[in-house]
Specification:
The protein is mainly alpha-helical and 333 residues long. It contains eleven helices and three strands; from the N terminus they run H-H-H-H-H-H-H-H-H-H-E-E-H-E.
Length: 333
């Protein structure tokens, strides 16, 4: 007969996203691309005496810095994944980086807005023949970066759903399937890699601004509408600020341990509240992309071992770390 040692029950806290290493490699590749563009613009600006080139190079440096935050978060969380100082692993480091990145993005939006308002009241002459090619080059770099940082994880979700077994799945499949359609957007949110999203938003925001700048420059040159350049800048600032706010909310929700999936408490109750057993306390929070931790407190007239209750939850792939507490139901008064 096999004797169980305490080591058999120990487990790691590996709560990194499924595509963590792929996303890490891509983020570093985009940093190299943006840094090369930044250096070329600044050196070219100094060489040709172009203020526009230098300004665009410095602007690119802010995005490169933000991307560096994302890349270092990937590398650090992977390197320290087994460090026991992190109670629930390093899966949340990406959300911390995303939150910091969102603040940088909000500051960029404010700077663009400030500069646009300033130019509206004090128009400056624009060197169109020089500015338009720079804007096109910036757009190409940003589109290439956005393509590298696109999120492909949703294509793999279905396969991931089968990792942790199928026990008891047939009891609830149909009701779960119907309910899941109502909560798709929230379920996607608990799976989403906010760190990758923050890196993508930085380059996508820059791409949007490049498109607006190109349209504004062509229109300003064709019709001599110098006021159009700052107006386009303000539109860009609003777009960037909106995305920054969205990122602050989603990353902040993870950092503050908000319940990640509205359908999950009902699924847990369906599986555990049998034979008069009742849940009296339930805590769910995200510990990494696609990973949820839970503490379930049950009241039961006939308590069983926590492993029995955990077995009933084995078909819920979202639950990567579960603690079950069972208390005996008080007798009739």
């Amino acid at each position: 007969m096999h004797s169980h040692s305490i080591e058999d029950h120990r487990h790691g806290h590996y709560f990194l996203g499924e595509a963590h290493e792929r996303n890490e490699r891509r983020t570093w590749a985009v940093i190299v691309l943006c840094a090369a563009m930044m250096i070329a613009e600044i050196v070219g600006g100094i060489w040709f005496g172009s203020v526009a080139l230098i300004a665009d190079g410095l602007h690119m440096s802010t995005h490169t810095g933000a991307l560096l935050i994302a890349a270092l978060a990937y590398t650090y969380s992977r390197r320290y994944v087994d460090d026991r100082r992190f109670a629930f692993g390093t899966g949340k480091l990406g959300d911390l980086a995303a939150f910091a990145s969102a603040i940088v993005l909000a500051m960029i939006a404010l700077l663009i807005a400030y500069e646009s308002v300033d130019r509206f009241f004090r128009p400056v002459s624009i060197a169109f023949n020089e500015a338009i090619p720079i804007a096109f080059l910036g757009l190409l770099v940003n589109l290439a970066s956005a393509w590298l940082l696109r999120d492909e994880d949703h294509h793999h979700d279905h396969g991931h759903d089968h990792v942790q077994g199928h026990a008891h799945a047939h009891d609830h499949d149909e009701t779960d399937h119907d309910h899941d359609h109502d909560h798709n957007h929230r379920r996607d949110a608990y799976r989403r890699d906010n760190n990758l999203r923050s890196a993508f938003i930085h380059v996508a925001a820059d791409a949007i601004i490049s498109v607006l700048v190109i349209v504004g420059l062509f229109a300003a040159r064709a019709f001599d509408w110098l006021w159009l350049d700052p107006v386009v800048g303000l539109i860009g600032a609003v777009v960037v600020a909106t995305w920054a706010w969205s990122l602050v909310r989603s990353a902040g929700a993870v950092l503050l341990d908000m319940s990640p999936d509205p359908a999950l408490p009902r699924k847990i109750a369906d599986r555990l509240e049998r034979n008069g057993d009742r849940i009296f306390d339930l805590h769910l929070w995200r510990v990494g992309p696609g990973h949820v931790a839970g503490i379930v407190s049950l009241m039961s007239a006939q308590p069983q071992a926590p492993s029995v209750y955990k077995g009933r939850l084995a078909d819920l792939p979202a639950l990567s770390h579960v603690t079950v507490e069972v208390e005996l139901c008080p007798g009739p008064h």
